[in-house]
Write a structure and sequence with these properties.
This protein has a domain of about 130 residues. The chain starts with about 40 loop residues before the first helix and ends in an 11-residue tail after the last helix. By secondary structure, it is mainly α. Helix 2 runs antiparallel to helix 3 and helix 5 packs across helix 7. Strands 1-2 form a two-stranded antiparallel sheet. Strands 3-4 form a two-stranded antiparallel sheet.
Length: about 270
Amino acid sequence: MGIFTSPRSRYIPPLGRDDSNPDNPPDASSTFLGRPPPAENDWLSRLAPQWPYGSAQDPNIVKVADPGPGPDEPLPSPQAPRRGIFPSVELPPGTPLKNGPGQPVVLPDGSRVPDRYSPTGQLMSPVGDLSEVAAAGRRTADQYRSFAIDPMARENAGILALWNFARNIGTGGKYDYQRQGNQLLGHVFGFTQLPQFRNVANVNVDLFSQQAGRTLEQTLTEAGEYASHFSSNYRPDQPYGLDPRTAEFITLGFNIGKSGAFDPRPPWS
């Protein structure tokens, strides 16, 4: 007979009990699992922590409070409170942060920029890595040169450069970290002000400009002219009409760019 037609042997349950005989039912200790069925809600007891030294707690073992570290053991470092279920982590440079104090600006060589106005003593920014700002300035210089040497496009070189400056470091521009909002509508309806990023926004102005080939004198002059028409922070009694703090960080941005921190061969020194 084939495997599909051979007779099946009668099933014999565990422990040798014959459950096919109604006159000889298995007792509670002879179930299919070989033990009595679990009591109601027995799964809760399986989830509960078990005493590690046997099924019952040893009455000779007495629990005492943790005495803490000994005299030669280091004290544990305090844990800062955190919110939510995820552990707190230190964000790497380059992580965008729209609110809060931001993160320190870290230059490509790993150094940080001091800021005497900052509560941390360091220049803070919503984006800790300013490489993108410098790269955008260099791209602006490359585009200007490519247009300037083309007789058919030469007359548009200045317009393109002005557009790149405005959309990147103008009021509400991409790297104006001091303000949030639509760059065009913000001039009508206002921007969300982030005063904690005022200094890095001014650093971006001349980091971008220096990498694009502008001199410090040109940037300070143009910033002062802009402030005279559009800024409530205009200071006619100061050089270039700029608030001293504004001029300080614009100059810092120029010096960072000129140092070659972001490009060993900037387009102009």
